[in-house]
Write a structure and sequence with these properties.
Blueprint lengths: L9 H4 L4 E2 L2 E2 L8 E3 L7 E3 L4 H20 L2
Antiparallel strand pairs: 1-2, 3-4
Length: about 70
Amino acid sequence: MKAKNNFNDPMDRNPANWRGVFYYNPKDPRIRVPKQDPMRGWTLNFASPYAYVFILAIAGIIALSMFLGL
């Protein structure tokens, strides 16, 4: 079986799925997708509720470390 190559996925290449710098596609099951220019890294699929859980977890870790003085 051939592995799927995420860099050639037409969903993240479609300009209609991009809202400025944010990727929003409810039909795409991925949480992390390559940016419009894949050389610049990855971004989150903001149509996925897990993206917001991830952002809240990072914010919680930062707030907790500031509260504890780490």
